[in-house]
Write a structure and sequence with these properties.
The protein is an alpha/beta fold and 500 residues long. It is built from 16 helices and 25 strands. α2 crosses α6, α3 crosses α6 and α10 crosses α11. Keywords: Ligase.
Length: 500
């Protein structure tokens, strides 16, 4: 039996164990069901002529059908391309033109967008057609073992596409295996564990933070199409869930929900959080109120995403750290000349190992620029302290030079958020006639009487003057992307619309 066909192995070993549960429909699939359904779907795909290396683009929410599709495609060497259904039609069209899918699948929730798209794929299915195919017990499937190749691409994840050329990250079976091993090692995952996935399918976190590692371990995966803080809290409690992944924004919404205090969550071993900076006060709140450990970490679509993890017992001792590198990978921090820097010196974080992508789809220039001699240059500035703990200082592209000085927005954000009266802060840069570039800060105040003058006075003893943002804006909320990250594009649009 193929060592990468985890579903087939668990279907043989524990056929009746529940592998998947939809908390939207209440439907459940055992490992035997998942194996059978994937075989039927694979047979259907072979009959319509799909071949190894073909792309299947999907415009649909995450769910049981998507996971059956994943297993079927993996067995045939077909590449899944999850599309961001929150993108406007013209941006989705760019992705489709880039990946040229043989099969296009959509859900009725996005039928209007589907109608506007110029789909030229040979085959077009609705997601319910996919479900009909694999539930059709008249499809005869010959017993066979599928040869799953380590080097075969499994996904193309588009990490951007709203400006310029789309950037499709190739995600292989090798990456899948070693990421699962990294994740399992750091968290001690076993077949007894369970999770609830509320993350979207078009982002690597919706697959490779917990879903595929738990599938590898024969554990239980609960699926919920949309994040709702109250419902998630109730489901975590009712199902005695042991592992959960959430962005900091999601965790803040959960702890603010009225039901938070009444729910114990005693079975929840760890919460993994990342995607953006994890505030130390968030970590301490969950530990104090629920005795639950939040483990901050760092990941990329291009690698892992399980790259670093901060041990739960160090989360409050090393605030703002992303922890140490996980198993089976190497890291280094280099200067602009590629030379490794000393401890406590800022440089670009680089990663090497079997979790690194072979490159970008149809984009050899981007591949060669970012991957050199096996090392992925992440574009993230970081430093390592004397104990080996890593700290992210921000994106290389986010750093700006004002009056000849290098300035890192994340440093300013950390100081702003430490001030009384400020809940959240985001710092961006814009061109400035005098200094070349200057900083602009967007803050959400807890004290409505707070003024920009007050903020500058509070920063005076914390930051050298040239690091102070030139402009300060007060917002009720910081705009977010579809997966809960800060939307810098919306903030810049707001800035450009305001007369200074």
């Amino acid at each position: 039996m193929n060592t990468l066909d985890w579903t087939a192995k668990w279907a043989d070993y524990t056929p009746n164990k529940i592998a998947l549960t939809s908390y939207d429909s209440g439907e459940q699939y055992s490992f035997s069901d998942l194996n059978t359904y994937a075989n039927r779907l694979a047979e259907k795909f072979k009959r319509i002529g799909l071949q190894e290396g073909d792309r299947v683009a999907i415009l649909a929410e995450h769910g049981l059908e998507y996971i059956v599709l994943f297993v079927a495609c993996q067995r045939l060497g077909i590449i899944l391309v999850p599309l961001n259904y929150r993108f406007p039609v013209n941006e989705i069209q760019k992705l489709i033109l880039d990946c040229t899918p043989t099969l296009f699948i959509y859900s009725y929730n996005h039928f209007e967008k589907f109608e506007e798209l110029n789909i030229t794929s040979k085959h077009i299915f609705n997601i319910k057609d996919v479900r009909h195919f694999y539930l059709d017990d008249t499809i005869n499937v010959e017993p066979r073992t599928y040869k799953i190749k380590e080097s075969s691409p499994l996904f193309i994840f588009y990490t951007s596409g709203t400006t310029g050329r789309p950037k499709g990250v190739i995600y292989t079976n090798k990456m899948l295996f070693w990421n699962s091993l990294n994740t399992s090692m750091q968290l001690g995952i076993t077949f007894r564990d369970s999770t609830i996935n509320t993350l979207p399918p078009y982002h690597t976190s919706g697959w490779n933070v917990f879903l595929t590692p738990l599938l590898h371990k024969g554990a239980h995966i609960g699926m919920l199409e949309k994040f709702d803080p109250k419902k998630v809290l109730q489901l975590l409690e009712a199902n005695k869930t042991t592992l959960f992944m959430a962005l900091p924004t999601m965790l803040l919404m959960m702890q603010k929900d009225p039901s938070f205090k009444a729910i114990s969550l005693k079975k929840l071993r760890y919460i993994i959080s990342g995607g953006e900076k994890v505030p130390p006060e968030l970590v301490s709140h969950w530990k104090t109120e629920k005795n639950i450990y939040i483990r901050p970490g760092y990941g990329l679509t291009e690698a892992g995403p399980s790259i670093t993890s901060l041990h739960h017992k160090m989360a409050q001792l090393k605030p703002n750290s992303i922890g140490k590198p996980n198993f089976y990978l190497e890291t280094k921090i280099v200067d602009k000349n590629g030379k490794v820097v000393k401890n406590n010196t800022i440089g670009e974080l680089c990663i090497k190992g079997n979790i690194v992508t072979p490159g970008y789809w149809n984009n050899s220039v981007k591949t060669n620029n970012n991957i050199k001699r096996g090392w992925l240059f992440t574009g993230d500035f970081a430093y390592r302290d004397h104990e080996g703990y890593l700290y992210i200082k921000g994106r290389k592209n986010d750093m700006y030079i004002s009056g000849g000085e290098n300035i890192y927005p994340q440093e300013i954000e950390t100081h702003l958020e430490a001030l009384d009266g400020i809940r959240k802060a985001v710092v961006l840069s814009v061109k400035d006639e005098k200094w070349g570039e200057c900083g602009i800060a967007f803050v959400t105040p807890t004290n409505k009487a707070l003024t920009a003058k007050d903020v500058r006075a509070l920063l005076k003893d914390r930051l050298v003057a040239y690091k102070h943002p030139k402009y300060i804006f007060f917002l009720d909320d910081i705009p977010l992307t579809s997966i809960g990250k800060v939307s810098r594009k919306k903030l810049l649009k707001y800035f450009n619309s305001v007369k200074i």
